[in-house]
Amino acid sequence: MDPERAHSLGDFEQAALAVLPADVRDFVAGGSGAETTLRANRAAFDRVFVVPRILRDVSACTTDATLLGRPADMPVAVAPVAYQRLLHPEGELAVARAAKTAGVPFTATTLSSVPVEELTALGGTVWFQLYWLREAERSLNLVRRAEDAGCEAIVLTVDVPWMGRRMRDVRNRFTLPARVTAEHLARGAVSAAHRRPGDEVSAVAAHTRQTFSSSVTWRTVRALREWTSLPLVLKGVLAPEDAVRAAEAGVDAVVVSNHGGRQLDGALPSVEALGPVAKAVGTHCQVLMDSGVRTGTDVLRALALGADGVLVGRPLMWGLAAAGEAGAARVLALLADELRDALGLSGCAGVAEAGRLRTVRTGAQAVNPYGSE
């Protein structure tokens, strides 16, 4: 695919679906259970309408933002996505290079198929996503490894005591090929994720059940906060009271997320949870969100509802599958163009002004935690 011929993020999804093996396509696209939350994430975004302002000077409209105290070219970070070499031989390396070019953070995951040291060596901003492992010492060693590699934040995922029941993967009996390994676990050795599973679970789910801890608590968060001086982010927050408790524990940001509809099926769409969470924490920590972001207008909607930024995952995976680094770079370039367009057309010269826009949801005025001018 010639990435320059793509005019929307959806174009890359169609191109990727045409070239990927069915089981890999389902692994990326699928959700848990009946995929109710997966579908609801997108539908919830489409129910949010922004009230634009007029007669404002937007001739110098900019998408510049600050994420975790560092400048970014737009209020977007690359979400953590496992095993990216499933989609392209360069995997995470290609997406990390694209993120550097776009001036946004790349989040390396515990289940990365490329070592974190190779990703930070590219020179961009890299955050490290942590799954808490059964052996706490292994988790803390991963934090130290990320720090030594030059990562600039730790993102603790808190909504995966075990992997949600993803029926597409169960039906496909999804198994990792030997060429794709979790490079941060057992030195990338072949694991349960590579062995043909039983009829009721995918191999990847079996592996995470063996590896991840299901006893992560607020004590874990406090211990991690004491262990690292890097900015700490909790990913997977939907309840305002949990967000408040996170801020009180000293985290620097929460990510309002239902894991892209891949964990609890029936969980609240992230964009529905966003406003109440942002209102609850105020200025005590940053609020990011993911799950369902597909356009620059979605980013504007999230900003208007109180987010400081968003994380984007699946669209970048489609870009990677369709055209490697060039595809991922084009996804981010399109997103930046769409966001700049949305900002200017809504009367905002920058992202801070977007936080003061009013929103209307399904015919009723939505709560805007920042009020109106």
How would you characterize this protein structure?
The model is unreliable at 363-373 (pLDDT under 50). 40% of the residues lie in helices and 13% in strands. α1 runs antiparallel to α13 (314-345) and α4 packs parallel to α13. The radius of gyration is 19 Å and the shape is globular. It has an eight-stranded parallel sheet with strand order 4-11-10-9-8-7-6-5. A three-stranded antiparallel sheet has the order 1-12-13. The protein has 14 helices and 13 strands. It is of the alpha/beta class and 373 residues long.
Q: What is this entry, summarized?
A:
The chain has 373 residues and is α/β, with parallel strands linked by helices. The protein contains 14 helices and 13 strands.
Measured between the Cα atoms of the first and last residue, the distance is 45 Å
What ranges have pLDDT less than 50 throughout 5 or more consecutive residues?
363-373
Give the overall shape.
globular
Structural class: alpha/beta
Tally of alpha and pi helices:
14
Give a quick account of the main beta sheet: strands, pairing sense, barrel closure.
Answer: 8 strands, parallel
Strands in their spatial order, largest beta sheet: 4-11-10-9-8-7-6-5
**What is the chains' assembly state?**
single chain
Summarize the amount of helix as a percent range: 40-55%
Mean pLDDT: 94
Write down the Rg: 19 Å
> How many beta-strand runs?
13
Order of helices and strands: HHHEEEEHEHEHEHHHEHEHEHEHHEE
Q: Please state roughly what percent of the residues sit in beta strands, choosing from under 5%, 5-15%, 15-25%, 25-35%, 35-45% or over 45%.
A: 5-15%
